[in-house]
Amino acid sequence: MGVQGWTLLLIGLSFALYIGIAIWSRATSTKDFYIAGGGVPPLINGMATAADWMSAASFISMAGAISFLGYDGSVYLMGWTGGYVLLALLLAPYLRKFGKFTIPDFVGDRFESSAARIIAVVCAIFISFTYVSGQMQGVGIVLSRFLEVPTTTGVMIGMGIVFFYAVLGGMKGITYTQVAQYCVLIFAYLVPAIFLSIQLADTPIPQLGFGGFLPDGTSLLENLDGLQKELGFDSYLNGSKSLLDVACITAALMVGTAGLPHVIIRFYTVPKVRDARKSVGWALVFIALLYTVAPAIGVFARTNLLQTVSNQPYADMPEWFQKWETTGLLKFEDKNHDGLIQYVGNQSSAVNELDVHKDIMVLANPEIAGLPDWVVGLVAAGALAAALSTAAGLLLVVSSAISHDLLKRCLRPKISEKGELLAARLSAGVAVCIAGWFGIHPPGFVAEVVAFAFGLAASSFFPVLLLGIFSRRMNRAGAMSGMVCGIALTAGYILWFKFLHPELSTPGNWWFGISPEGIGALGMLVNFAVAGAVYRFFPAPSSEVQAMVDDIRVPLGKRD
Amino acid sequence: MLSLLAVWAFVSFGCGILLHDWLDQWKILGTGFPVGFWFAQQGSILVFIALVFVYARRMDRLDKEFGVKEE
After folding, report:
1. Interchain CB contact of B5 with A (< 8 Å)
2. Rounded-to-integer distance, Cα A443 and Cα A437, Å
3. Which of A68, A96, A476, A495 has the fewest CB within 10 Å, making it most exposed?
4. Residues A396, A131: Cα–Cα separation, whole Å
5. Residue A303 φ/ψ, nearest 5 degrees
6. Which of B31, B52, B69 lies at the smallest CB-CB distance from A211?
7. What is the ipTM score, two decimals?
8. According to the CATH classification, is domain A3-301+371-552 in 3.40.309.10?
9. What is the separation of C-alpha A386 from the centre of its chain, rounded to a whole number of angstroms?
10. pLDDT given for residue A444 in this prediction
11. How far apart are CA A102 and CA A265, in angstroms?
């Protein structure tokens, strides 16, 4: 059985598993559909959260990005895990105590305003679609590369699977499939990492391996750092970004993570407030298992790549090289016609002959290291699990934002339970189709838009939720003006540098050297400052709301 | 809670970013990790996990003390 046979077998088995779980866990009420009946144990919820959170970007792109960025890649590692500390300490238990279904629910009820609710709905939908298009694209890439089907067919297959379990099972179906998907994706991520660690560092634990030594006594990190410098790349151990920029990007990613709607919504599904606290811990453990291995893969993959290709004859390249060339993710042009591959740093782009896309570092890793065929197939199944689990979680946010926040809470409050469940299923179905369309016709600016999603979550949701929970006196005027100013600054800055004048986007033109990726941190501070100044001029919220704020701080649970 | 947030900021923004260059002059004993680099790519994540569980335990104890423990 070759690579393709194994891939087909493993992907087929994993899909059959997801469908089986979906049939077993059908949703029968809106409560099942939105929050899985509110009875998910903390460990299971933690695992589902981890799968929900770790997207195609975490699985496919992150280790590759780190292997190209070196130390600068730490912003993703710290940013995307540090957010969970904020979530556990500041948000999750309180929102669980509040005990509704969605973030717009909280924003609307806490600030007694449909306008605030609608801003929140729009942000939630925007963030979710931004993310989903990346997932569907990931599904397309994986299926087209490993099964050699057209990208469109690949996306359609992915859509079909998500449609089946998200529409049928809602949050209940999604939660239990995500548990299965977590197991598949973490296994698929760890197996090649362990192989590589044994090959390069002689230890089966990748987290230790990348701090290991080569037979001649130099450490793996120093060896790579030396190779990088020799070829004219940036140092691996020291970044090229400014200190303030690194800090701002890290902060924006942390705060953005804590404010992402599909992550927060998961903590409504546990039975008790103390379960919400514990559940964040488990989620972080499961996430850290992948996130501490990613930098190790980064080092292994980068070392392997440089040693395999640098100054080697093109004719001697192994089979994977040509395969990835056909996908366009690997490009070689023999500029000086010597038949050798000159792969050198960006300052000498006239000499550099090889263009490696970061996404292939994880996907091609097993082939580069010459691992067995089944490992290659396993990585494909794992990447699909990561993409599908995140896509499903996001689609649920879209569906609940439409059927619950817009339809039930704003347009037709008298809708029956059955009608709302039907509306939720319909909107999930429509959302799957839109997401699929984005996957087949990916907007060329996915990466830019993701910065947008985090910036918006950081500058809108996080401050509003925090103030809503911890300040009894915070009122509608303060929260709204803070949100509007925070979003305006962040969105304006990103639009200006990413879409209108990308040529001006250099550290010299940025405010204080803060890149558009990190501007959400400043947007958040502006939001806090404006809200903190404006609310003083307006009356305090009603006594019911003040009582509610007091109430959510006491953990004694009232179920429903 | 504030002390936990202080630790959170110290390991990530402190050790991982601000003090990264200065800490890199040492290596973690027996490994090839420069200290600052290790905090940025491994250590901070491990400390985050510890923080969340410490917080969960502390709050559980507080709940019990004030008689608001959930059954």
Report:
1. yes
2. 10
3. A495
4. 13
5. -60, -50
6. B31
7. 0.90
8. no
9. 10
10. 57
11. 6
Q: What is the pLDDT of residues A497-518, one digit of tens each?
A: 877 877 777 777 788 878 888 8
Residues 6-65 of B with CB under 8 A from A: 8, 12-13, 16-18, 20-21, 24, 27-28, 31-34, 37-38, 40-42, 44-46, 48-49, 51-53, 55-56, 59-60, 63
DSSP character at residue A508: T
Rounded Cα distance between B68 and A551, Å, is: 12
Q: Tokens 């501070």 — which residue?
A: A525
Between the alpha carbon of residue A59 and those of residues A63, A138, A287, A293, A467, the distances in Å are 8, 10, 11, 11, 34
Name the token pair of A12. 């087929």
In this structure, how many other beta carbons lie within 10 angstroms of the beta carbon of residue A271? 18
Residues A74 and B42: beta-carbon distance below 8 Å: no
Query: H/E element holding A356?
Result: strand A354-356
Burial readout A83-111 (b: 16 or more C-beta within 10 A, e: otherwise):
bbbbbbbbbbbbbbbbbbbbbbbbbbbbb
For A472-503, how does the pLDDT look when each residue is reduced to its tens digit (9 = 90+)?
889 989 998 998 899 889 888 888 887 787 77
Q: Where are the domains of chain A?
A: 3-301+371-552
Tokens of A477: 């005027």
Q: Do B41 and A273 touch (CB under 8 A)?
A: no
3-state secondary structure of A415: coil
Cα distances (Å, whole numbers) of residue A97 to A91, A266, A556, B16: 10, 13, 8, 34
| Residues near A360 by beta carbon (within 8 Å), at least 6 away in sequence | A64, A324, A327, A329, A330
Contact flag B59-A93 (C-beta cutoff 8 Å): yes
Tell me if A107 sits within 8 A of A98, measured CB to CB: no
Tell me how far the alpha carbon of residue A502 is from its chain's centroid.
Answer: 24
DSSP string, A55-75: -HIIIIIIHHHHHHHGGGGHH
Q: How many residues does chain B have?
A: 71
